[in-house]
């Protein structure tokens, strides 16, 4: 019988095998920042999974997530083996209730994650913008929020967190983490190109548009100058009466959303890459005892299996299974060097569209299904494009409707618009009303959202006037 990894003997054995697996990983070409491993109890791991970070701002919504995770785990639907945080160094937490073979496998799995997070362009982009010490930064932000609670009271701080966390997915990943404010009219005029005598004469030739001064110093500046999808940044910087500590909370939530985005956008690639490498490292780790190896491989099979149980159909894609299968197919057909290039350059959107082939879809028995009103499930399509888009649709825009700040009126009221044609769906109007109520509390002016309902009908949602 396999024992848990919490006795001195099993901990020493894990340290020994981990060091040998790291040596093997380097020999096989894995390249990663140092990894700090820590064994923790299951309840601590649950909190990390719910909060997203070991130390994070407190909020009632995390308590609800904790209960949900606890129920899922109690029903056998969710078991957490490890959590790894990219950075320099990476931080990896392993459950001490795992068996020694399980934690040996998890060690190899984490090294695959570490290799991915150092070399993939999305992860590297965040590291360049925010640095590699997310845990320390998150702890500092949590401390500032606790200080704000002591100074301004739980109710006021929680109202700001309600709004900020409700908008957690609403960032613009195409913009920089640290971006400047919109230029003023004066700054725009100062930045306008200066024409020399020849250019002015050329622009005044017949058939050419007359050169006229476009700027109107007395004209009111439009805010935002174009639809602004980074709602956390916009509210932090342009809410009429937002106080400094409230602004800090919005920017703290925004920075953590930037950190989480690569994990979200590369889940299939990342989990598949880590699974490919833990399987390969275990196969080539001839120093492992035979019985430990067999138990670890059994754990691998449980992680990457496509089915919920036995041959039961899975109605949701297992990212471990899908990613692992795709990487094995790519390595077999294109070689490891090409696989590493793909790992560096792609995210899940391009990865699935470019490398989930028709043959692989048939082999993995992937399909699009419809849930009928009578409760029956019907397979509706297994076309390549349909399968790709069914997998990727929930990942678009962080899984949230694409909402932009469109106009801040003279009286300070704010108009939001829903780009429903791009994200291809309506919104839950009840939830939208609650979110607008949260935003209205911090904007302190009326806020309206122009959107469509779940059936595509035009709707306008308005916050309560404060």
TrEMBL record:
InterPro entries: Spore_V_R, SpoVR_N. Residues 10-388 form the SpoVR protein-like N-terminal domain. It holds the Pfam family SpoVR. It comes from the Bacteria. Transmembrane segments: none annotated. This is SpoVR family protein.
């Amino acid at each position: 019988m396999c024992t848990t990894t919490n006795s001195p003997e099993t901990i020493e054995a894990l340290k020994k095998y981990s060091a040998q697996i790291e040596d093997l990983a380097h020999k096989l070409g894995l390249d990663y920042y140092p990894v700090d491993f820590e064994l923790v109890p299951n309840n601590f791991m649950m909190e990390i999974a719910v909060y997203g970070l070991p130390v994070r701002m407190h909020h009632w919504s995390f308590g609800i997530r904790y209960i949900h995770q606890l129920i899922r785990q109690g029903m056998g639907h969710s078991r957490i083996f490890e959590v790894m945080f990219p950075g320099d160094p990476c931080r990896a937490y392993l459950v001490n209730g795992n068996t020694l073979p399980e934690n040996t496998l998890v060690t190899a799995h984490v090294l695959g994650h570490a290799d991915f997070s150092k070399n993939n362009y999305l992860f590297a982009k965040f590291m360049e913008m925010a640095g590699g010490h997310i845990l320390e930064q998150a702890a500092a932000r949590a401390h500032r929020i606790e200080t704000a609670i002591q100074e301004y009271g739980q109710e006021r701080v929680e109202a700001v967190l309600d709004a900020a966390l409700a908008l957690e997915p609403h960032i613009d990943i195409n913009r920089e983490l640290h971006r400047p404010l919109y230029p003023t009219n004066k700054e725009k005029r100062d930045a306008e190109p200066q024409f020399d005598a020849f250019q002015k004469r050329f622009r005044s030739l017949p058939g050419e548009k007359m050169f006229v001064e476009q700027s109107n110093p007395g004209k009111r500046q439009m805010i935002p100058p174009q639809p602004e999808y980074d709602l956390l940044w916009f509210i932090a910087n342009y809410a009429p009466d937002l106080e400094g500590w409230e602004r800090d909370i919005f920017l703290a939530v925004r920075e953590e959303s930037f950190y989480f985005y690569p994990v979200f956008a590369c889940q299939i690639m990342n989990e598949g890459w880590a699974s490919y490498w833990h399987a390969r490292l275990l196969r080539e780790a001839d120093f492992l005892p035979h019985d430990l190896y067999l138990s670890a491989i059994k754990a691998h099979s449980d992680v990457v299996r496509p089915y919920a149980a036995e041959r039961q159909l899975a109605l949701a894609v297992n990212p471990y299974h899908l990613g692992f299968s795709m990487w094995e197919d790519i390595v077999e057909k294109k070689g490891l060097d090409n696989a590493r290039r793909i790992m560096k350059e792609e995210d899940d959107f391009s990865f699935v569209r470019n490398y989930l082939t028709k043959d692989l879809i048939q082999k993995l028995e992937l399909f699009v299904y419809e849930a009928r009103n009578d409760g029956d499930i019907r397979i509706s399509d297994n076309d390549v494009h349909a399968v790709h888009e069914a997998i990727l649709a929930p990942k678009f825009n962080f899984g949230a409707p694409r909402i932009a700040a469109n106009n801040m009126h003279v009286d300070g009221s704010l108009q939001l618009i829903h780009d429903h044609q791009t994200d291809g769906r309506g919104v839950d109007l009840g939830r939208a009303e609650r979110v607008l109520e949260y935003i209205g509390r911090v904007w302190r002016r009326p806020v309206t959202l122009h959107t469509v309902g779940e059936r595509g009908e035009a709707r306008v949602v308005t916050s309560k006037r404060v």
